From TrEMBL:
Enzyme Commission designation: 3.1.2.22
Lineage, highest ranks first: Eukaryota, Metazoa, Chordata, Craniata, Vertebrata
InterPro entries listed in its UniProt record: AB_hydrolase_fold, LYPA1-2/EST-like, PLipase/COase/thioEstase
Protein name: Acyl-protein thioesterase 1
EC top class, as a word: hydrolase
Length: 195
């Protein structure tokens, strides 16, 4: 609900916005307490074990949402995936593993999950030219800016580097800001112009 409110301020009338809720599940990092989560988080360091089964299942769930929109008459190349933190991580992973050609990805304060599962060098799939807007606060205590920087370097080795934009925001923690939302709006308006 929080993100649908944030998006309300930047909505374009010709674009449909879908903000799915993550399911509630126990999260290892949160002492196994149940919370909204797309997949389990075991640790927050670059070499932490990852919930491969959960990440892949979550990506299938997002692909099913894309399929539903395609059935509703929206071509997949008119769909942008986006998310914050774990949702951004899931958006990147899904876009890089789907067989559906997408318009772009908005990846906020996040990282690329299962990064070692991707081949070294360029991606051969349908989204090797996909546009990516990656944003990160330079004071993020939860997902350090370094994760964003490492992710953007990995992305530039996999997809056309000219299509990867990395923006950082001074003083921003694990959150969003007006400037970031305006960058998101510009990206969406550029890659989903009215037809």
């Amino acid at each position: 609900h929080g993100w649908s409110e944030a998006l309300a301020g930047i909505k374009s009338p010709h674009v449909k916005y879908i903000c799915p809720h993550a399911p509630v599940m126990p999260v290892s990092l949160n002492m196994n307490m149940a919370m909204p989560s797309w997949f389990d988080i075991i640790g927050l360091s670059p070499d932490s074990q990852e919930d491969e089964v959960g990440i892949k299942q979550a990506a299938e769930n997002v692909k099913a949402l894309i399929d539903q929109e395609v059935k509703n008459g929206i071509p997949s190349n008119r769909i942008i995936l986006g998310g914050f933190s774990q949702g951004g991580a899931l958006s990147l992973y899904t876009a890089l593993t789907t067989q559906q050609k997408l318009a772009g990805v908005v990846a906020l304060s996040c990282w690329l999950p299962l990064r070692s599962s991707f081949p070294q060098g360029p991606l051969s799939g349908v989204n090797k030219e996909i546009a990516v807007l990656q944003c990160h606060g330079d004071c993020d205590p939860l997902v350090p800016l370094m994760f964003g920087s490492l992710t953007v370097e990995k992305l530039k080795s996999m997809i056309n580097p000219a299509n990867v934009t990395f923006r950082t925001y001074s003083g921003m923690m694990h959150s969003s800001c007006i400037e970031e939302m305006m960058d998101v709006k510009q990206f969406i308006d550029k890659h989903l112009p009215p037809v």
